[in-house]
Amino acid sequence: MTSSTTSLLTPVENDLNILTDNLKKLIGARHPILGAAAEHLFEAGGKRIRPAIVLLASRATMSDHDLTERHRRLAEITEMIHTASLVHDDVVDEADLRRNVETVNSLFGDRIAVLAGDFLFAQSSWLLANLDNLQVVKLLSEVIRDFAEGEIMQSINRFDIDASIDCYLDKTYYKTASLMANSAKAAAVLSDAGSDIEENLYSYGRNLGLAFQIVDDILDFTGSTEVLGKPAGLDLASGKLTSPVFYALQQEPYLEILIERKFAEAEDLNKALELIRKSNGIEQARQLAKDLAYKASQSLSCLAPSSSKDALHELTDYAVSRLY
Fold first, then answer.
1. Would the pTM count as exceeding 0.90?
2. Axis crossing angle, helix 49-61 with helix 307-321, rounded to the nearest 10
3. What are the residues whose beta carbons fall under 8 Å from the beta carbon of 78, sequence distance 6 or more?
4. How far apart are CA 119 and CA 104, in angstroms?
5. Are 89 and 151 in contact (CB under 8 A)?
6. Which CATH number does the domain housing residue 160 bear?
7. Stretch 276-287: mean pLDDT
8. pLDDT > 60? residue 3
9. What percent of the chain is helix, strand and coil (3-state, nearest 5)?
10. Which of 19, 95, 162, 217 is the Cys-Cys partner for 242 at CB 3.0 to 4.6 Å?
11. Could you give the CA distance from residue 240 to residue 8 in angstroms, rounded to a whole number?
12. pLDDT at residue 274 tops 90
């Protein structure tokens, strides 16, 4: 967890420490190489935002009652699914760094990385089935399907200037927001919180997830390698067109030419980055992220006052504050 989120997640700080210990036990010693690959990721300094949302949503909907083991296991499953998706993403993207740490594929090779991701998906599916709640199984199974669909959409739409901002948001939902939305809703299901709270927490996770990813996409143009944990401009170089790019395309016609020829000439990428930064695209994307974060915060009005509700609300501010 980074220092910027440590105080934010105080209501579930102990829960997250328990989660980290349990994750190391859950990956088991039966597969030493896969276990080492997975543990490398769990030790890579992630913010644990996704399981934190599950734990905060659980506490916010459990009133004065303590968390059940099923709530804790749901948070662990959520982090395992997220981690599995990162491993596969890094293989597809041929990434060497994540969070300023060497990726599993760069340390162990693509084959082990793919197997490690599969192992985590399989382990999370088995644990999910053992929660013995069909609605929760359906919600989290949908997430795993969404990851695959989002990855396919992203691959198909590389360098595609005809793709729309709506297509980008659909892909972003599948790859990022679906897990936040469905796991937050699943926490409310385990709390028997009722359909109104379940749907509001789904909306919270959906809009927060979209806001987080849009901010990450902006940072790809404005951040440093030290902040990003990967080279700046890498997404654009690989043909991933994000919200700042789509907005900039409406203002900078020459950007279209550079993208269509896949930055084939020596200075093409630098020219494209300059055009995007010169346009209003980054500011429009920033406003979109702020609007989505605000919608997420509005979804929390259904919850009773609590420190966990406050933390969920503060996460919506944190999502966009990373830009400043």
1. yes
2. 150
3. 50, 51, 54, 140, 179, 183
4. 13
5. yes
6. 1.10.600.10
7. 96
8. no
9. 75, 0, 25
10. 217
11. 31
12. yes
